[in-house]
Design goal:
The complex is a heterodimer of chains A (229) and B (895).
Chain A: E1 7-11, H1 15-27, E2 31-35, H2 38-48, E3 52-56, H3 64-72, E4 79-84, H4 88-96, E5 101-105, H5 109-125, E6 132-135, E7 138-141, E8 146-149, E9 152-153, H6 158-169, E10 174-176, H7 177-184, H8 193-207, E11 214-217, E12 221-224
Parallel strand pairs in A: 1-2, 1-3, 3-4, 4-5
Antiparallel strand pairs in A: 6-7, 7-8, 8-9, 10-12, 11-12
Helix pairs in contact in A: 2-3, 6-8
Chain B: H1 11-20, E1 26-31, H2 38-51, E2 56-60, H3 67-73, E3 82-86, E4 89-93, H4 96-102, E5 106-109, H5 125-134, E6 138-144, H6 149-159, H7 169-173, E7 177-181, H8 185-193, H9 200-208, H10 213-241, E8 254-257, H11 264-278, E9 282-288, H12 297-305, E10 309-314, H13 318-328, E11 333-337, H14 343-359, E12 364-368, H15 387-406, H16 414-429, H17 432-449, H18 462-511, H19 515-530, E13 534-539, H20 542-547, H21 550-556, E14 562-568, H22 576-588, E15 592-593, E16 605-613, E17 616-625, H23 634-701, H24 707-738, E18 747-748, H25 751-765, E19 771-775, E20 783-784, H26 786-803, E21 810-817, E22 820-827, H27 860-870, E23 874-878, E24 887-894
Parallel strand pairs in B: 1-6, 1-7, 2-5, 5-6, 8-9, 8-11, 9-10, 11-12, 19-21
Antiparallel strand pairs in B: 3-4, 13-14, 13-17, 15-16, 16-17, 18-20, 21-22, 22-24, 23-24
The chains are: A alpha/beta (229), B alpha/beta (895).
Chain lengths: 229, 895
């Protein structure tokens, strides 16, 4: 018995992108859906209920944020936005507006597939949360509030634990600074990114061999990788 | 003074103090006559300060061969004098430039009133002193009271000697310290006789002149009074500065009325003294009147020299104009001359005084006697001198002849009319005096020849007596009014001509589009007015200054070097000597050279063009003139003044337009850069993503893909690489064109051949499309770059084929039209929306984004425009061309 392939909706106005993404996604075991405008994309998202949406922010007929807001009005489907490297503000805005992750053009295929995996897994986890998160040498036990590196128990302050847990719950996905600050320090401190830098530094020191898994996404936020990549 | 209202220092007094700071101080040793010991006093004090370690230097001290002076000079350092050759003699003068370069702390410079040798920079030594003070050097100098401008008149009255060398009152007023050097007249005479002042032969002459005890006493009083006034002024100024409530008079203002001609001098001198005595500001007004003959120029210049705030207005009602001005300026005293000694003008003067007294009782009136000797020169007449009188017997004789001919045909009373006509004619052509004489002559002739009893001078009937009386009255009235009317008409005509010229000039300057044309117009006009060569000089760093931010530019402003930018005739250029005057005029913003007080021996005269820029008066440049006539013509001077104003405004406007154009050009470059960045972001990323993604897919999932998918991915890599290469070369073209790096090769091009080749190549890319060609025989062979033309044609054709896809036709034609040859490329595609039409030649603009396959980089047409322009041609677009469809691109080149 074969599991039905997860469908991925690609919304991009460049036909050349569809031309290589189609075969690439198929080869990776996904069923690609193709849309060249935001309206077409929203229609397909509503009609076909894809497992994940790859959304280009530079669409001719609608602003990327607008498209995202309309999508979120009826669906919690994971969304990965495609944007340019030099548009930090655009990416952060999209993430804050409900996108799950982003890739930068020109993106590599391996990177895109890793993001897709992380995004689609979260969608599955929503129904059955797994209390134990493993990333390389790091194990985070969300239920017992404990973390181990190479089997060695970590001594964490409450704030350090909150930070690690927030990243572990979103394993493989970027978490914006605003979201981390809001969740851990409260809504009054969403702009105080210097707190975050200090605690991330401390956490990295304690992570030892697992420190390289905690990646900074400059200008956007932080990401805990599943494995070295 | 109450607590609630604290005393505030007077702002005017503080401003005056501030203006003095930064300038070198001026100390004047004032004496009543030569020999009182001014120079000695100055030297002794100088030595004292030298001993105290101050840098005291003698610029020039006149010893007059006096032994004691020679001895006093000895210990002080002396600056070498400058030798100036003049008419075969060598004169030794104070060296201003050496002093400015040496920058002593204190410079001693004898005889403030001295006139410099011809060929010096300034005509007067006091001007040297002003420049030294501007340079931050403290100057000590000596002066006798008779050289003070406002004292000259009084001194002349007392001594009978009028001094030619005078110093404006403002110089003494602006001095920081005045020290009176005084000895009793008897002692002075004693020194004189002992030969301590002049050498014996000079002493003899001087003793006969004003070295008389009475004259010396008067001079001494004058000097003491001047110094006392000065001390008083210092105290007043100190009190005002420090807000001490004091007894200085408030609100007194003296208004001097400047008459035309020589009468101005005593009025203004008296006014200056009155204003000084009252500690009141001095205002001066000249009212121009129709028919006025005497030149007010010298009077106005003197008023300014005396420090009066001077204004000129025009009015017919003299008293009303004066009163209005006096009230507007809050004058309290009005001072005016008694009027010239011609009887009718004296009448006029009396009338003026009377009406001022009657209509404006709030003013104190001062009437100054007119100088008896100074008779005003006769006003210019239409008929010079005695010839005017010839008209009288001629016209009266003519009238008599006419009456003799009419005798018997008309009633005798009508003869009066004929004579009246003759008198009107005399009044209108020559003047009122002649008309009066004519009236007497006519009456005698009429009475003798035609009034009964004839051939006697008696009148028989009462009726005729009445007629004769009426004739006399009418003739007198006519003589006066017609004469005045004639003069008014003449002066109005002159004014009208001047006004018309001014309007024409203004129109001409405004019509000039570019800076060089404008400069040319200015020098041509100046040359026409001045009757000699003219040139325009602008500072060298003008371009630099425009590009630097204000503060920096001001700091970096070295003495600007004037550079001739335009000249009329074209080869007129100031010589090196004149350029020295130009440099000075530009640095100071004041006139210099011939006919001015500074460097008057230069052949050229330089007048500054000034404008207000951010609240500061800026010298934009200089107008250089080499006047043809020796005597300055006041009419031409007025015209030049108007030209200077107009030219300055026009130049400033042109400069601002240049700055605006530069800003616009910068803005365009900025827009291009933004468009380029956007294009880099968009056009580079998609092909790169595609190439990378396709390559990775092939590598990671290659075996799992079928043959067709693999081939498609490979060709997508190829296509995207080609697209990148095309985009790159387009970007390079645009950058080259925008930075002017495209220099076309020019050779005769066979247009038919070039278009044929382009069409055939296009046919290879679009084999199924029809390209019509209409290439007439006998097309010219314009000089173009064949390679660039080929690229333009290829681009335009490609566009036409792309936008009219898939089946539309494309037409290619070439025709000669006048001096141009036109190439047309037409398609019958959907056309270009009207709102896009003006922008299709802009870089990165893409029409009809919807069919994104056809849309290229958006650079094609922009590149075409650049290439066509580089070859001296134009490219235009029209759409729609027929039935709401189609686009026509037209290339025009000079045939």
């Amino acid at each position: 018995m074969t599991v039905a392939p997860l469908s991925v909706l690609v919304v991009d106005d460049e036909p050349q992108i569809h031309r290589f993404l189609g075969p690439a996604l198929e080869a990776a075991g996904y069923a690609p859906l193709r849309a060249e405008t935001a309206r077409e994309g929203l229609r397909l998202a509503a009609a076909r209920g894809p497992a994940c949406v790859l959304l280009d922010l530079g669409l001719p007929d609608m602003d990327g944020k607008e498209a995202l807001a309309r999508l979120r009005a009826f669906s919690q489907v994971p969304v990965i936005v495609v944007s340019a490297r030099d548009r930090e503000a655009e990416k952060v805005a999209a993430l804050d507006a409900g996108a799950d992750d982003y890739v930068e053009k020109p993106f590599g295929l391996a990177e895109l597939l890793a993001r897709l995996r992380a995004a689609t897994r979260r969608a599955l986890l929503v129904e059955a949360p797994v209390p134990l998160v493993t990333a390389g040498p790091l194990e985070v036990d969300l239920e017992r509030r404990r973390a181990r590196v190479l089997g060695q128990e970590m001594a964490l302050t409450p704030r350090e634990w909150e930070l690690l847990a927030a990243l572990a719950r979103n394993l493989g996905r970027v978490v914006t600074q605003r979201r981390l600050l809001g969740e851990i320090w409260g809504p009054a401190h969403v702009e105080d990114s210097q707190y975050l830098r200090v605690y991330v530094g401390q956490l990295r020191a304690k992570l030892g061999p697992a420190a390289r898994l905690l990646r900074t996404e400059p200008g956007v936020g932080y990401r805990l990788l599943e494995a070295d990549g | 003074m109450s607590q609630a209202e604290p005393a505030r220092p007077d702002p005017d007094a503080l401003a005056e103090l501030a203006a003095r700071e930064g300038r070198g101080r001026l100390k004047v040793f004032l004496g009543a006559a030569p020999g009182v010991g001014k120079t000695m006093e100055m030297l002794i004090e100088g030595r004292r300060l030298l001993a105290a370690g101050r840098d005291v230097v003698i610029g020039l001290v006149e010893t007059h061969g006096r032994a004691e002076t020679e001895a006093a000079i000895a210990p002080l350092p002396r600056q070498p004098l400058k030798a100036i050759a003049y008419r075969g003699r060598v004169l030794h003068e104070f060296d201003l430039d050496a002093a400015l370069a040496r920058r002593p702390a204190i410079l001693l410079l004898d005889e403030l009133a001295h006139s410099n040798a011809p060929g010096s920079r300034h005509a007067k030594r006091w001007q040297d002193v002003e420049e030294l003070r501007d340079g931050g050097i403290e100057v000590w100098t000596t002066m006798n009271v008779q050289h003070l401008e406002s004292s000259a008149e009084a001194v002349a009255r007392v001594t009978g000697v009028r001094v030619a060398e005078t110093v404006p009152d403002a110089v003494l007023k602006g001095a920081d310290a005045v020290e009176l050097v005084d000895i009793p007249p008897a002692e002075l005479l004693e020194r004189m006789r002992a030969g301590k002042i002049y050498r014996p032969e000079q002493a003899e002459r001087a003793l006969r002149g004003f070295f008389k005890e009475g004259a010396l006493a008067a001079l001494r009083e004058l000097a003491l009074r001047r110094t006392a006034d000065r001390v008083d002024a210092d105290v007043t100024s100190w009190m005002r500065r420090n807000a001490v409530a004091g007894p200085w008079p408030v609100g007194d203002r003296v208004l001097a009325l400047i008459p035309g001609g020589a009468a101005a001098e005593p009025v203004l001198h008296q006014a200056r003294r009155l204003a000084d005595a009252l500690h009141a500001p001095l205002l001066a007004l000249h009212v121009e009147q129709p028919g006025q003959a005497e030149d007010p120029g010298p009077g106005i210049a003197l008023a300014q020299q005396l420090g009066a705030e001077t204004e000129v207005t025009t009015a017919t009602d003299l008293p009303a104009a004066i009163i209005a001005h006096a009230r507007a300026r809050r004058a309290t005293h009005i001072i005016l001359g008694r009027g010239a000694p011609v009887w009718w003008r004296r009448m006029l003067g009396r009338r003026l005084i009377a009406s001022l007294a009657r209509q404006a009782p709030e003013f104190t009136l001062h009437v100054v006697p007119s100088p008896a000797a100074a008779r005003a020169p006769a006003p210019p007449r239409a008929w010079p001198g005695w010839t005017a009188w010839l008209v009288v017997p001629l016209l009266v004789g003519g009238a008599t002849l006419a009456c003799a001919l009419l005798d018997g045909m008309v009633p005798d009373a009508a003869f009066g009319m004929v004579y009246l006509a003759a008198i009107v004619a005399i009044a209108a052509t020559v003047g009122p005096l002649q008309a009066g004489a004519g009236a007497v002559l006519a009456f005698l002739a009429w009475n003798f020849l035609f009034l009964p009893p004839r051939y006697t001078l008696t009148i028989a009937s009462a009726q005729d007596v009445l007629g004769a009386v009426v004739f006399g009255a009418v003739a007198a009235l006519l003589a006066g009014t017609t004469g005045r009317l004639g003069r008014n008409v003449r002066s109005a005509a002159l004014r009208l001509a001047a006004l018309r010229r001014l309007t024409a000039l203004s129109r001409r300057l405004n019509a000039q589009a570019s800076m060089p044309e404008l400069q040319m117009a200015v020098v041509e006009e100046a040359a026409r007015i001045a009757g000699g060569p003219a040139c325009l000089l602008l500072p060298l760093d003008e371009a630099l200054e425009a590009s630097l931010p204000g503060q920096f530019a001001r700091e970096a402003a070295l003495p600007a070097e004037p550079v001739p930018r335009a000249a009329y005739p074209a080869d007129a250029a100031p010589d090196d000597g004149a350029m020295a005057a130009a440099r000075w005029a530009l640095a100071r913003g004041r006139p210099a050279g011939r006919g001015t007080a500074t460097l008057p021996t230069s052949a050229w005269r330089f007048l500054p063009l000034t404008a207000l820029r951010e609240g500061e008066v800026v010298t934009l440049g200089l107008l250089g003139l080499r006047p043809g006539a020796e005597v300055p013509d006041p009419e031409a001077d007025r015209a030049l003044e108007a030209l200077l104003d107009q030219a300055a405004v026009a130049l400033e406007r042109a400069r601002l337009a240049d700055i605006a154009a530069n800003a616009r050009a910068r803005g365009q470059t900025e827009a291009l850069r933004t468009a380029l960045l956007t294009s880099l972001g968009h056009d580079l990323r998609t092909p790169l993503t595609t190439i990378r993604g396709a390559a990775e897919t092939l590598r990671s999932a290659g075996p799992a893909l079928n043959e067709a998918t693999r081939a498609d991915l490979l060709s997508s890599i190829e296509e995207e690489a080609t697209r990148l290469a095309r985009w790159m070369s387009a970007i390079l073209d645009i950058v080259r064109l925008e930075t002017g790096q495209v220099t076309p090769r020019r050779e005769p091009v066979d247009l038919a051949e070039a278009m044929q080749a382009a069409a055939e190549r296009a046919a290879l890319t679009y084999p199924e499309r029809e390209i019509q060609r209409d290439l007439r025989a006998g097309l010219p062979h314009p000089r173009l770059d064949p390679a660039l033309l080929d690229r333009v044609l290829e681009n335009v054709l490609d566009n036409a084929l792309k936008y009219s896809a898939p089946t539309g036709g494309v037409r290619l034609s070439a025709v000669r039209e006048g001096a141009e040859v036109m190439l047309r490329v037409e398609d019958d595609g959907p056309g270009i929306p009207p709102e896009d039409l003006p922008r299709i030649f802009d870089p990165f603009f893409r029409a009809a984004r919807a069919d994104s396959i056809a849309a290229g980089s958006g650079l094609g047409l922009s590149i075409c425009r650049g290439l066509v322009a580089a070859m001296g041609g134009r490219i235009t677009a029209e759409s729609p061309i027929a039935a709401g469809r189609g686009t026509r691109i037209t290339l025009r080149f000079p045939a």
